Each structure stands twice: as C-alpha cells, then as structure tokens.
Amino acid sequence: xxxxxxxxxxxxxxxxxxxxxxxxxxxxxxxxxxxxxxxxxxxxxxxxxxxxxxxxxxxxxxxxxxxxxxxxxxxxxxxxxxxxxxxxxxxxxxxxxxxxxxxxxxxxxxxxxxxxxxxxxxxxxxxxxxxxxxxxxxxxxxxxxxxxxxxxxxxxxxxxxxxxxxxxxxxxxxxxxxxxxxxxxxxxxxxxxxxxxxxxxxxxxxxxxxxxxxxxxxxxxxxxxxxxxxxxxxxxxxxxx
Length: 241
Known about the structure:
The protein is an alpha/beta fold. Helix content is about 30%, strand content about 25%.
C-alpha cells in the first residue's frame, strides 16, 4: 500500500502543475511532492476511471474535483472558474458522481483519492460535503485512502461575499460537529478568491488568487483554514510564494 502523508501540522504548499493531466502539485516544507491534483471531471460522460487513475506519480495521493456540468474557463496561472449548472445538484448527477468515485477508487487500488469540493461542483459547500461523507459512511465500508482536500474560500460564490463571515463559519462548524468530515480532511487550502467577469453580461464567478488580491481578508482566510486544520490535525496548504 502506498502510505498517505502523515497527518501533521507542518504547512504544505500548492502550486500550478504543467505535467500532463495535472492542474496542481502539493509539496511539503522541503519542496517534496506529497500529492497531485488532476483535471478530470467526474461528471463528464467520457470520464474513464482507469485513465484518470494513471496521471501523476503512482505513489502519491490523487486529488480530484468533485464534478461539474457547467462551463470551465481558464483565468491564468493554471486556475479556472466554473459556471453554475443547476442539474449537477440533482439526484442524477449525484448518482453519476457516486459511480465515478467508486470506479476511480477501484482503479486506483491502494493509491489514495482526495476529493476537492468547490461551490460550482457536486460537493459545493460544507453541508453537502458533510451529507455525502456521512451517507457514504452508513452505506459503504470505509474506503481506504478516500479523503478530502478542503478549501474554505472555494466554497464561496459571489452572492455570498457580503456575508462571507457567516458562510466561512459554517464551514468551520461542519468540521467541528461531524467526525466523518474531520476524519476525511487531508489538508486545508488557504487561498484568496476574487471575481472574474465572464463573456455573458452580468456573469461573475469567483476564482482562486493571492490572499492579498482577494475579496476575503487574508487574516480571515488564514484563521478559518488554520482552525479547520487544527481540528482535523492536518497541514495548512498555502500558495507557493
């Protein structure tokens, strides 16, 4: 079995990746790779679990977004924004997501899988992530290596910014009250988030950015991420400077 990185408090870093099939790389304080993130879409009808399982070093955890039906747009530096699509929160998309996760876990074997929730994806916020993890724990045996890379600011939408404190508090509360959530978290990403205007008039989506350029105060970004990381006993993941 390929062991997962120790659940330790030393900070990690996240950076864009130019490797085939990857979007990001996570490194420890010594610059050693500890996980890689894939660009695979679990809700793509053409999703191939075997192919998706083969990207990046086979001895590192594979991080995957939780599936989207909306459009994906590049915003530079390896980052993207996604448009909303209401159908992805219906039962059909959730069932497709479940099937894809199971298929990917089987294809990965003992290689760990970490899910990375986002406001425009199937696991879109703290409550939806909690419900999915708790329901899965009830109906399926604990999956070896299944974890979550949590990024609190990625769970915000433009409409939430005015009440960002309340929404970020809810993410913290999710980790506080749910043992399955705390046990699943493998790292907590502390990045800023800002608005990007789309081609359609009035279309605004949030994307990752440097904390200093974001709509959420850096102190709040770090405090929220640190609180969750401490609760779960996992690293805080910062953008590589």
